[in-house]
Amino acid sequence: MYLIVGLGNPGRQYEATRHNMGFDVIDKLVEEYNVPQSGVKFNAMYGKGRIEGQLVILMKPLSYMNLSGGPVRDMANYFKIDPETEMIVIYDDIDLEPGQLRIRKKGSAGGHNGIKHIIQQLGTQTFVRIKVGVGAKPKGWDLADHVLGRFGSNERKLVEEAQERACKAVEMILADSVDAAMNQFNKKMENV
């Protein structure tokens, strides 16, 4: 069984913002695979279903980004998930251009507070991540204003395509391997 976590912030005011990229990808997976909503457990919305023949739990922590680690830890413990081999976390990355993906097997938080809290709560930096590019903050902008902002119309198409590719990356990880997905999706996209 795999735990697939999308990071974001709960509440209508955060919908479709850069920081809610993980939530948006989970929503696409739910829709594509008809994963039924199982309710709320450990301060997270979740649903159980199958992707590429693998039993999965799709999860959106409702604790706000900076406290994502608690719900992730509790859900992983409850379902006896080994985060190092059975978990995928999907989130926004300001170091990637809008539309780019980067898959990693482990690493530091890279300044992302949601990932920092997950690492702290799990006690490991080894878990698969799918980072979806949202672009760097404009010069002079506050980082919070940038990540809680919405995409311009010129970026929206790139971001929607990246969300689709993130779903395909999840499928490839489950059906084949993380390495196969890295080889396929870590390439720099042209015209992005």
Describe the structure.
By secondary structure, the protein is α/β, with parallel strands linked by helices. It has seven helices and seven strands; from the N terminus they run E-H-E-E-E-H-H-E-E-H-E-H-H-H. Strands 2-3-4-1-5-7-6 form a seven-stranded mixed sheet, sandwiched between helices. Strand 3 and strand 4 form a beta hairpin. The protein is globular. The termini are far apart. The model has no long low-confidence stretch (mean pLDDT 92).
- Proportion of residues in β-strands: 15-25%
Number of helices: 7
Structural class: alpha/beta
Mean pLDDT rating: 92
**Which stretches are poorly predicted, pLDDT < 50 over at least 5 residues?**
none
Helix content: 25-40%
Sheet with most strands: strand arrangement: 2-3-4-1-5-7-6
Query: Alpha-carbon distance between the termini?
Result: 34 Å
The string of secondary-structure elements, in order, is EHEEEHHEEHEHHH
Our Rg estimate from Cα atoms comes to 15 Å
Q: Quick one: biggest sheet?
A: 7 strands, mixed
Q: What would the principal axes of the Cα set say about the shape?
A: globular
Number of E strands: 7
